[in-house]
Amino acid sequence: MEKVLMKGNEAIAEAAIMAGCRHFFGYPITPQTEVAAYMSKRLPKIGGVYLQAESEISSINMILGAASAGVRAMTSSSSPGISLMSEGISYMAACDLPSVIVNIQRGGPGLGGIQPSQADYWQATRSSGHGDFHIIALAPNSIQEIVDLTQRAFDLADTYRMPVIILGDGILGQMMEPVELRPNISANPPEKTWAANGTGGKRKKNIINSLYLKPDQLEQINFERFKRYKLVEKKEALHEAYLTDDADIILVAYGATSRICRNAITQARANGVKAGLLRPITLWPFPVQAIKQTMQRAKAFICVEMSMGQMIDDVKLAIECERPVAFLGRTGGMVHTPEEILAKIEAVDRGETA
Amino acid sequence: MSETNILVAGFGGQGILFAGKFLVYAGLINGKQVSWLPSYGPEMRGGTASCGVIISDTPIGSPIVTQPDMLIVMNAPSLERYEPDCARNGRVFIDSSLITRELGRSDLTGWYVPAAKMADENGLTGLANMIMIGKFIKETNICAYNDIEAALKKTVPERRRALYDSNLEALNLGYNYRR
Questions:
Q1: ipTM of this model?
Q2: What is the pLDDT of residue A62?
Q3: Are A129 and A103 within 8 A, CB to CB?
Q4: Which domains occur in chain A, in start order?
Q5: Total beta-carbon pairs less than 8 A apart between chain A and chain B
Q6: How far is B104 from chain A (nearest CA, A)?
Q7: Does the structure show a pLDDT above 60 at A331?
Q8: Does A295 touch chain B (CB under 8 A)?
Q9: Is there a contact between A176 and B24 if contact means CB atoms under 8 Å apart?
Q10: Which domains, from first to last, does chain B contain?
């Protein structure tokens, strides 16, 4: 298959279309605007609906409506816009609605800046909204993986009836790489018997609802939903291990940061330090077992994030704090250099793990 | 392992990102690994623009060009900003009609092409970027001369086919330029 050059943002949009998404609602914000721009050009030509909403609150609720009717729908935004969507994401989780939400992260908090960031990790994996719920969080690190995972996101959403977030950053959104637009979707997605798309006079009404005033009933519904989450945790965790087999020091990084780590690892190995990379591809569910396995040999971990330290919590939980976990973070839109990561690897190799 | 880090920098509107895209396609049709990352910011026509291009024999890690092996600069502020970052013994291509000073670092090799002036004189105003790229290809062999047309066909979208000929003319002008 011929490779084409695409920006990450454009690749997200095209992959969504390949997955059968014909409904996109969004609001422009740097650095993800190309997703919406691409959709606005393509969707009307293929019988889809592109609508620029008046705000992110509207976009997410339009997704809720489209998902209720059983169609594949997507929205995309960047950090501040995702915060505005929190309520809608919680409602969709409560209504067991599949959907795909894209967050091309920028520096924060607040309006922050527009340069790359990974400071929404907690938001994506812990607190996308109020209440007891999870969403699946996917973190590609190349444009090819964006194409593959965006399609997969729609299948995961439909299979588990829950929102899926694609967590990218300004680098991945803006960079171009050659990609193969290869299909990566299930031939038999689950039938949406629950959708509110007309009874045809043949069945009882389907009702999409998140209001339950009887606590015992709501508790039961939450229990049931968490059984599904257990299944997701068991079956859907993804990771990539790079040179971990003989590594004394394991770097844990995702997204664009993981690519910079690879440069540093190459240099470290040239200097005789055995470093490797464990890259979570799903942030929730977190690849706990994969990280645990590297502990058999590794003497220390380094978590590298474009944040003040968020995923590091999950790394420590995964290894139950049995090894030191050092941290190297940049924030506010600043990006690591391979040299500073190398310096950290060498410091940890000398035993400076603080 | 061979990896070439290239930075193209100048004003917004000079076709900096387009020039970078051309280089990426030139690498791609030669079966290389490639990446392209633009600077993005509250930028506009007349502001600064740059893009980093990596062409490599092996998979590319970081797409960020921090120490360019090759630098193409099309305005004075870009030379000020990026000359210190260049890798040791790097190669620098300078639009000498817009940048009056020469390189300060003695380890760097410079090529001075009055691209903006040449573009104006040849009815190719706005195509100084491709004149620079023509010279760049000649001196670096980043791709063969015969690959230029194929790479340009990929870079100029079908609906802008009218621009193909003038871009090719600019590339040739740069390729054949001698100091």
A1: 0.92
A2: 98
A3: no
A4: 4-184+211-235 (3.40.50.970), 240-349 (3.40.50.920)
A5: 59
A6: 25
A7: yes
A8: no
A9: yes
A10: 3-175 (3.40.920.10)
